[in-house]
Automatic annotation (TrEMBL):
Keywords: Chemotaxis, Cytoplasm, Hydrolase, Phosphoprotein. One of its GO terms (biological process) is chemotaxis. PANTHER family: PROTEIN-GLUTAMATE METHYLESTERASE/PROTEIN-GLUTAMINE GLUTAMINASE, PROTEIN-GLUTAMATE METHYLESTERASE_PROTEIN-GLUTAMINE GLUTAMINASE. Phosphorylated by CheA. Phosphorylation of the N-terminal regulatory domain activates the methylesterase activity. The lineage of its organism: Bacteria, Bacillati, Cyanobacteriota, Cyanophyceae, Chroococcidiopsidales. It comes from Aliterella atlantica CENA595. One of its GO terms (cellular component) is cytoplasm. This is Protein-glutamate methylesterase/protein-glutamine glutaminase. Residues 161-351 form the CheB-type methylesterase domain. It is found in: Cytoplasm. CDD domains: CheB_Rec (cd16432), REC_CheB-like (cd17541). Gene3D superfamilies: 3.40.50.2300, Methylesterase CheB, C-terminal domain.
């Protein structure tokens, strides 16, 4: 029998602390080994408790979540889950700065409410902790440069054929906000094709992610709206709780079908729709994330002659979604995250010195 995952809670609200402890303690696979009211207290506890995962609030007196995360990642890196109220717009930048600083994921702060909501929150939070318990954390996630790997030479030849790339579609889950930021931050405002993203993220944080990326990047970033046609230099995100697809005219539509591979929005649904409309002029990219969502979508893009790329294991926070697509033999190249943007810039004819 494996030891339960040890968790340190960092939270200045006694009520929130009690709820978090109750939720996590309901799982025999998780043990809350310590509680701290701010970052300073938590830093004192870490050497003694050696928690596998840390859950931290954003706003705390003495040392807030951002400063605390920076300290942990610089001195004793381990998986951090940011537990925060999602609706406060002024917190958007700080929440995603924590992810940039090395925190792995974000989760909405639980509150007392309906029993059905409580059970769902409990399942979701326990699921997050279990995912994070298997994450290898790197100080500031700095990775050595790694050469791109051609995993399917015959398909890689397709990627090198000169063609008119008309759209890029990206799928990601755990670790996705950080990875997507690394890519988009390197694109100029006049990026010549649209980018369509599907990111698995906790309910309530999507708009904050979009606002943060829009302020950080030169390309325009927004949630896709029904009836819009994808435009160059714009990044479109699938909405909460709906699949994002393209109609026969290439305009966005929402579909509230059942979850695919456990997710709505689903990467695979969007990838298949992009493949159907754009054909060989599409490029699909699978980034870090748990599960297999997107693998069948990558197959669809490959089958119509589009380009397919995946983030490598070494730079993934969770090597799940890319691994599943690679196993299907539908990925042309596997690359470290820092090489994906330069590759895409070359594919659209932008050469950086």
């Amino acid at each position: 029998m494996t030891n339960p995952t040890s968790v340190l809670l960092v939270e200045d609200s006694p009520v929130a602390l009690e709820i978090l402890e109750r939720l996590l303690s309901s799982s025999p696979d998780i043990k809350v080994v310590g509680k701290a009211r701010n970052g300073k207290e938590a830093l004192d506890l870490i050497p003694k408790l050696q928690p596998k995962v840390i859950c931290t609030d954003l706003h705390m007196k003495g040392m807030d979540g951002l400063e605390f995360t920076k300290h942990v990642m610089a001195n004793d890196p381990r998986p951090i889950l940011v537990v925060s109220t999602s609706v406060q717009k002024e917190d958007t930048h700080t929440i995603f700065e924590l992810l940039q600083a090395g925190a792995v994921d974000v989760f909405p702060k639980p509150s007392t409410g309906l029993a059905s909501d409580y059970e769902q929150v409990k399942r979701d939070l326990i699921g997050k902790i279990k995912i994070l318990s298997g994450v290898t954390v790197f100080t500031k996630r700095q990775q050595p440069s790694v050469k791109a790997v051609e995993v399917n030479p015959s398909m890689s030849a397709i990627a090198n054929v000169t063609r008119s790339l008309r759209v890029i579609t990206i799928g990601a889950s755990t670790g996705g906000p950080q990875a997507i930021h690394k890519i988009l931050a390197q694109f100029p405002a006049e990026f010549p094709v649209p980018i369509i993203c599907t990111q698995h993220i906790s309910q309530g944080f999507l708009q904050g992610l979009v606002d943060w990326l829009d302020s950080e990047c030169k390309v325009k970033v927004k949630v896709a709206q029904v009836g819009e046609s994808p435009l160059p230099g714009t990044v479109y995100f699938a909405p909460d709780n709906s699949h994002l697809e393209l109609d026969a005219q290439g305009k966005f539509i929402y579909s509230s079908a059942l979850p695919v591979d456990g997710h709505c929005p689903s990467v695979t649904v969007t990838f298949k729709s992009v493949a159907k409309f754009y054909g060989r002029s599409a490029a699909g990219i699978l980034l870090t994330g748990m599960g297999r969502d997107g693998a069948e979508g990558m197959r669809a893009i490959a089958q119509v002659g589009g380009m397919t790329f995946a983030q490598d294991e070494k730079t993934c926070i969770v090597f799940g979604m890319p691994k599943e697509a690679i196993a299907l033999n539908v990925v042309q190249q596997v690359l470290p995250i820092q090489e994906i943007a330069p590759l895409l810039l070359r594919k659209v004819g932008i050469n950086r010195i």
